[in-house]
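Quick one, probably user error.
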């Protein structure tokens, strides 16, 4: 019984390490994907900021409203007071951002921040925020939020498959 207990404990430790490692890998990959999308958006905004023939606020609105991946993730524009003023979903968001990603992006030298947490409805999400405060006074940051339910389901199914085999 002692040997079986030790063996089960070792298997549980290996399984917990596997779950942690796989989840960490997929969350990191998701964060990198979101960051690359956000970098392309802010790259376009950098060009518009230097182009005097373009109205920066209008271009931000166009980019947010016409965000190509809005079926999978939500792009948000945040004003200098920390309020979400534009969303790619079209719903008006009037709440003030209190999440760590916004605070991190505003205080960091690299101008980015990320956060994993739950929404008011209980959905697990990841958000990445990039500061654009040096480009314009109307907008302080751009933010992308994505649900982690697909990632969590994939990780769960992978772990179940490993345990069964």
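Nope, works fine. Designed sequence:
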């Amino acid at each position: 019984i002692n040997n079986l207990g030790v063996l089960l404990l070792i298997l549980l430790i290996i399984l917990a390490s596997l779950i942690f490692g796989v989840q960490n890998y997929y969350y990191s990959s998701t964060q990198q994907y979101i960051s690359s999308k956000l970098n392309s958006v802010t790259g376009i905004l950098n060009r518009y900021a230097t182009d005097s023939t373009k109205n920066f606020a209008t271009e931000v609105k166009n980019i947010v409203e016409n965000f190509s991946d809005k079926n999978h993730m939500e792009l948000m524009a945040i004003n200098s007071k920390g309020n979400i003023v534009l969303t790619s979903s079209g719903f008006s968001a009037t709440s003030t951002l209190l999440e760590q990603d916004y605070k991190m992006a505003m205080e960091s030298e690299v101008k980015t921040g990320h956060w994993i947490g739950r929404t008011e409805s209980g959905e697990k999400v990841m958000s990445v925020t990039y500061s654009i405060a040096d480009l314009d006074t109307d907008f302080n940051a751009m933010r992308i939020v994505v649900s982690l339910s697909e990632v969590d389901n994939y990780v769960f199914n992978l772990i179940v498959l490993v345990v069964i085999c």
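The mean pLDDT is 87.
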